[in-house]
Every structure is written in C-alpha cells, then in structure tokens.
Amino acid sequence: MKKRLRGVAIGWALAYFLDAQQGKRRRAVARDWTLARLRGLGRLAGRRGNYAVSQARGSWERRTREGRIRTGQPDDATLAHKVESTIFRDPAVPKGQIVVNAERGVVYLRGEVPEQAMVDALVERTREVQGVLAVENLLHLPGEQAPMHM
After folding, report:
1. Which residues are paired to 101 by β-bridges?
2. What is the CA radius of gyration of the chain?
C-alpha cells in the first residue's frame, strides 16, 4: 500500500512539473520559491552572525574604554581611595596635610609629615596596596621645601 501511494505521489509530481503546457512555468516558480526560501535563511543566519559580531565589538569597546582592558587593576579614583584608607588607618598620620592622587596606577603622595620615619612608612604602606604600580614620593618634612618631581 505504501509503495503504491509513493508511486502515485511521484507520478503526480512528474506529471505536474513535466506537463507540456504549464510544466516550464511550474518548474520556474518552484525553483524561484525554493531559492527565495534559501536566501531568507541565509539572511537570517547573516543577521544573527552580524548581531553576534556587533555584540562582541560592543563588549570589547566597553572593556577597553580609556585605552586599557579592565583587569584586576582598579581605576584611578578607586586606587587613590584604597591608598587613603590604608595609610590613614594609623591615627598618628596627619590626614589634613597629605594629599593622595593616582594616575594610571602611579600613586602620588604630597604634603608635609613630622618625621622621616613616617615618610618611609607611608611610602612602604602605599606600595603594599594592590593595584599600585609605582609610588611618587613628594612628601617633605617641616621647614624643607616641597619637592616638585622625583
């Protein structure tokens, strides 16, 4: 029974597409319809591909803002706050006389401190903070002129 139905279906399709009067037009319509569906699938796949590419590009641009990829390195303001919270834990440190700035991982310590041992301790504590790449020590003792650059 199945063989007979399959034979009837194949015979009908051949008669439909090989008809002497309408067969050529029917074959062209079937070919055009099939190709249009394939092009539509290709466009759909392309849009999905382009969407993925644009998403990846946007993700990369977000991660590389300010010219660097976000890694474990905090931004400058966060780094300066981390250093301040570390060095100002000691109550002997004059908080109002020291300024902490950070620029691309380099921390600048400016201000006046009462003794050289405190300068050395502040520089050492600053170097221990995670994310500090270098320390510029511009601290000075009372009566000394403030250093401009190291």
Report:
1. 108
2. 37
Q: Measure the CA–CA gap between 121 and 88, rounded to whole angstroms.
A: 12
What per-residue confidence (pLDDT) applies to 121? 94
Closest CA to 128 of 94, 96, 85: 85
Give dist(CA 121, CA 71) in Å, integer. 28
Whether CATH 3.20.20.70 fits 76-140: no
Mean pLDDT of the chain: 83
Length of the chain: 150
Question: Chain centroid to CA 9: how far?
Answer: 57
Residue 97 pLDDT class (50, 70, 90 cuts)? very high
